[in-house]
Amino acid sequence: MIKVGIVGGTGYTGVELLRLLAQHPKVELKAITSRKEAGMPVSEMFPNLRGRVNLKFADPSEAPLKHCDVVFFATPNGIAMQQTRELLDSGVRVIDLAADFRIKDVGVWEKWYGMEHACPDLIEEAVYGLPEMNREKVKTARLVANPGCYPTAAQLGFLPLIEAGVVDVEHLIADCKSGVSGAGRKAEVHALFAEASDNFKAYGVAGHRHLPEIKQGLSLMAGKQAGLTFVPHLTPLIRGIHATLYARLTKDVDLQALFEKRYESEHFVDVMPAGSHPETRSVRSANFCRIAVHRQQEGDMVVVLSVIDNLVKGASGQAVQNMNIMFRLDEAMGLEQIPLLP
C-alpha cells in the first residue's frame, strides 16, 4: 500500500483528493493537515466522506508526513516550497497542486506570484505533471508540479496541432471559462452566490498567473517561443472548464485524424466525433478531457473545444494520475468514476 499524506486538506482540491484517494485500492491515508482545524474529524467538515475517511485534521508540525511514501500539497501558492526539501531529503515523494514548481524561470515565477522563491534549485528538478506530455519523466520523479486547470485544458487542446507543426504558434488564442470552485474555498465577494449566479464575466485580461505556465508548455511543444492571447472568464457553474482554442493552419491536414491518432492511447483524453460540441457536464467529477476539433468553412482557422472538470483533471484527479505513474500502477486506478449527470 502507498502511504499518503495531504497538506492542506480543507479546500476544494483537498476534499477532492480525499474523495479519490479514499476509494483507491492501493492507498492508505496516513495524515491530513490543517493548522486551523487540527483535531476536527474530516467527516465533520466534509460529510460526504463519513464512513470512508476516519482521520482527524492534524497540525502540520505533528503529522507523520516523513513516514509517508508521497505527500500531496493542496495548499495556497508559496506553502509547498517551504516544506518540500525536508520531505525529499527524507525519501518522500511530493506532488504539488499549487504553482510553486510549475514555471522554470524563477524570475518569471516571482513576478507573477509576488514572492521570493524559497528553493529555486528544486524548480529545475521538478517534473511538470501533464502525463500526456511528460509521462516518462513523471515515472522517475521525486517532485511533480501538478498543472493548473486552465493550462491543462488549453495545452491538451493545442498539443496535437503544435507537435505536428501545422499551425502558426506565434498567434494562438485561448478563450477559457471556469466555474467558481476554481477560485478555491474561501470567502471572497466575487464568488458569493448573489455575485456569481446569473452572471458571466471576463477577468485577468491584462494578465493572469496561468498565462506564463501555458506559454511555457506551448513553447516546449513548438521548440520555439509561442505567442498566446489568454482570456479567462467566470461562469455561474460550480465545476468545469470550457476552453475554446483558436489557431491558424499553415498546412492542410486531416484534423480529426490528427487528434485521434495523437490521443488514441490516452485513457483520459476523449477525442469526440467530427462536428461534436463537448459539454462541461460530460466530465463533471471525472478525470477526463473531452476534445472536439473544427475547421470553419474549410478556411485556415482551426477551433478546438476542450472541456475538463477543474477539480479533477484540472487538479486532484490529475495528481492521483501522476501518483499512479510514479508508483508504476495502472494509470487509471482509482480514477474510473463515470461523470455525473444531470
TrEMBL record:
GO terms for molecular function: N-acetyl-gamma-glutamyl-phosphate reductase activity; NAD binding; NADP+ binding. The keyword S-adenosyl-L-methionine does not apply. It is found in: Cytoplasm. One of its GO terms (cellular component) is cytoplasm. It holds the Pfam family Semialdhyde_dhC_1. SUPFAM superfamilies: Glyceraldehyde-3-phosphate dehydrogenase-like, C-terminal domain (SSF55347), NAD(P)-binding Rossmann-fold domains (SSF51735). SMART domains: Semialdhyde_dh. Catalyzes the NADPH-dependent reduction of N-acetyl-5-glutamyl phosphate to yield N-acetyl-L-glutamate 5-semialdehyde. This is N-acetyl-gamma-glutamyl-phosphate reductase. Gene3D superfamilies: Dihydrodipicolinate Reductase, domain 2, NAD(P)-binding Rossmann-like Domain. Belongs to the NAGSA dehydrogenase family. Type 1 subfamily. It comes from the Bacteria. The lineage of its organism: Bacteria, Pseudomonadati, Pseudomonadota, Betaproteobacteria, Nitrosomonadales. Keywords: Amino-acid biosynthesis, Arginine biosynthesis, Cytoplasm, NADP, Oxidoreductase. It comes from Sulfurirhabdus autotrophica. Residues 3-141 form the Semialdehyde dehydrogenase NAD-binding domain.
